[in-house]
Every structure is written in structure tokens, then in C-alpha cells.
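Input sequence (122 aa), recorded before submission:
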Amino acid sequence: MMLIETYVAPSAIPGAGYGLFSRDSIPAGTVIWRFVPGIDVALDELPTEPLWRKFLMKYAYRDLTTKQWVLCVDDARFMNHSEHPNTGETSDGGTQTLVDIAPDTELTCDYREFAENPFAGW
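Predicted structure, C-alpha cell format:
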């Protein structure tokens, strides 16, 4: 669950579609996301129902550590990958800012830090 105010808007990253943007200034080192049971979803396997499976394959990721499929129910699922992200993983699996973030900045992460085969297309 996002722990800061954000919004979804068109991304400047080629091919990305929409992205997640900060509403406010965020100091470097601020934890901006944590998995919250009951809000975020963790599944041991993908369902067989085609539409639900398609949705999860688009918006969920398979966690490197737990091997569970994780779906962020809030707008965190719109955070895009970057080779030079402005957020990174915390030691306990959260996400923090790596630099000071100005308002209206797209928040990016390196999918390879937490997702198994993030570019496989499932």
C-alpha cells in the first residue's frame, strides 16, 4: 500500500502508458510503500479463470523471495521500471525513495530487485 499521496497520469517513459506520480515533495530515504495484508493480495498461484489470470499477469508480480504473486490493490501497480530508478527496496521488503522527489515526479523502481522474471510477459 502506498504510504504517500500519489496519482496516475501518462508516463514519459516510452511504451509505458501510465505511471505513478508524487503529489508532494518526498525526502530521500522515505518509505513510500509496504505490503499491507488485507489491502494488498498475495497468492500462491495464478487462478485458471482467464480474465482474472490476465489481470494478474498484467498488474501483479511474482516475488523473488516468497514466490507468491503480489497484487498491489492501490495505484502502486502503476509504478514503472527504470534502469535508473528513484526508489529502491528496503531491507524488510518495502520501498523507499533513493533521492529527494519533487512534486509531480514519476516514481520508478527496478523490477529486478523484487520480481521474478519481470520482463517474461507471463
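Checked by second reader. The chain is about 10% helix and 25% strand.
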